[in-house]
Design brief:
By secondary structure, the protein is an all-alpha fold. It has one domain. Helices cover 77% and strands 0% of the residues. Helix 2 crosses helix 4 and helix 4 runs antiparallel to helix 5. Keywords: Membrane, Transmembrane, Transmembrane helix.
Length: 111
């Protein structure tokens, strides 16, 4: 019984990822690049487009570093890198959860 529920959840998650392919791809790349940077110090992240074009830091500058510190459980360093991490991570997770639940309900109605 538990195996069936787990299998159904994995299938739903795979379908959700296929449905949101571009966003999932960008998210996986971001998480992968932050983990690589946190573990090895090798930076494979894309540079900030705003900073590259206009030579001025945007409000989002430092979020990758803040996310890296958050992964390493260094909350004080994450906040000092960019305090917006305290807003973006919880609301981002809330959005993903709500969107996943809506996707799941929509698929259940179609089946």
């Amino acid at each position: 019984m538990e195996k069936e529920i787990l299998l159904k959840m994995v299938k739903t998650l795979i379908n959700y990822t296929k449905h949101n392919f571009i966003i999932a791809l960008i998210g996986f790349y971001f998480i992968f690049s932050v983990i690589v940077r946190a573990m090895t110090g090798i930076n494979i992240c894309m540079p900030c487009l705003w900073k590259t074009l206009f030579r001025v830091e945007c409000p989002g500058c430092g979020l990758t570093t803040a996310f890296e510190h958050l992964i390493q459980l260094e909350l004080h360093k994450a906040i000092s890198s960019n305090w917006l991490i305290l807003i973006i991570v919880p609301f981002g997770l809330l959005y993903i959860i709500k969107d996943f639940i809506a996707f799941k309900k929509k698929n259940k109605a179609l089946n």
